[in-house]
Amino acid sequence: MYGWRAKIGLVVPANNTVIEPELNKISPPGVSIHAMRLWTQSCDMAEQLSEMERLVRGRVMELVVAGVDVIVYACMATGLIKGPKWAEDFVTWIGDTFGIRATTASRATVAALHHLKVRRIALITPYPPELNELVIPFFETCEFEVTEMVNLPISDLREVCRIPPEMVYRLGRGIKTDPQAICILATDLRSIESIEALEHDVGKPVVSTNQAIFWQALKTVGVNQDLRGYGDLLRNK
Which domains does the chain have, with CATH numbers? Predict the structure, then answer.
């Protein structure tokens, strides 16, 4: 049986083609990944997120039928726009309604940074300006000091998945301030191959949203295997 140790359920935006390959790449034996997609017709970001919220109940119910052990709302943009309270409400709703543990992309990212006991962070984002404006206030609300934020110049979110991991690595190497950690945002930004090299070369822990999601999901279901090659976070649960 696949997922004999744990089945991780993801709810992802329909355009995301990165998180599943990344998590499958780093999954230990006995852990399986199962994703449902949220598709919207709108081109407006606020309308897209509203449509996704209307659709999420059906996707969650399908994951419940699949027998997953934990459910992740894997859209960092939603967490940035809706704020920490929304993430808490989502987790509570899943638990109260279905009796299944849950997290979100934003909640997992914040939890991972707190776990590493860092406060000053530098951020790498692939977001358009209207979403980028929300990033620093979000992390400040979560008690972090943002020393620097570097942005990939992407106007269409569907292009994010085409950014090569070496470009993310170069942005990390180019950070000019002295943060305690580097945080790479977005679930459809490919970076898992570059995390270990970036940590070695800058001498600081690196947290990506997908790495944080996987770390928190494994922790939630009690899979405590030490994973090497993907950053300090997954080596030190």
Answer: 6-105+210-226 (3.40.50.12500), 109-208 (3.40.50.12500)
